[in-house]
Design brief:
alpha+beta, 10 strands, elongated
Length: 225
Amino acid sequence: MQTFRKQAGFTLIEIMTVVAIIGILSALGISALRSYGRHEDTRRAALAVANAITKARSEATASGRMTFVLFAPPTDGTIPFAPGQFAAMVIDQDDDKKVGAGDAVTPIFLPNGIGANVSAYGAQGQTSMKDTVLPSADESAQIPDGSLSALNDGTTIPVDATLGVPVLAFAPQGMPVTIADPSNWGTGAGGVYITDNDQMVLAVVVEPLGDVRTFAFDNASGKWK
C-alpha cells in the first residue's frame, strides 16, 4: 500500500522573517537608488555650470567684448532673474565694461530633471561639511585658503561692489577679471560650488588664466579630486 509523507510547510515566523528581510533589502535598494540619483544630478548640474562658464569665456574671445556671469540677481535690479534661474550671462554690447540694461542677457538654468535638493552650496541653508577647506586650485583673491562656510552665494567669485553679487568677468582675451579692474588679468578667478545638500560637493573652478576645471570632494580621503 502506498503511503504519503506529510510535507512540512513554512511556519508563520519563517514567513514573517522572509518578508522582513525582503522589506529591509528593498528599503536599502531604494535608498541607494535615491543617493545615486542625487549624485548624478549634482554631477549634471556641475557640468552644466562648467559648460556655461566656458561658453561665456568663448563669447568674450569671439566677440572681443567683456562677458559676465552673474550668480545671483543684482541688488540694483539691473538684471532680473526668473524663478529657478541659476545664473545669467551678459555680453557687454555697449563696450562700457559694465553690466547694464542694454547688454545682451542669456539666462542660465540647471538641466531639466535636476532634483530640488541640488543647489549652490549654502543656498538651502546647508551647514554640513562647512569646515571643508577649498581646493588649492581655487585661487580666489577674495576668499584665499578659506572653507565652504566662507562662500558668497555658493561661490568664491569676486562680489562686485555696484551689483552686490558675485560676478565672473572675462576680458576679451579670455582672462577672468573684476569689473572694478578689468585690465588686471587673473583677479576674477574663483570657484562655484554645487552640492546635493547631503554629503557631496563639486567645485567648478576658474583658474587665473581662464581655464575651467571641475573637482569633487572625496569624503573618504578628505581631498578634492
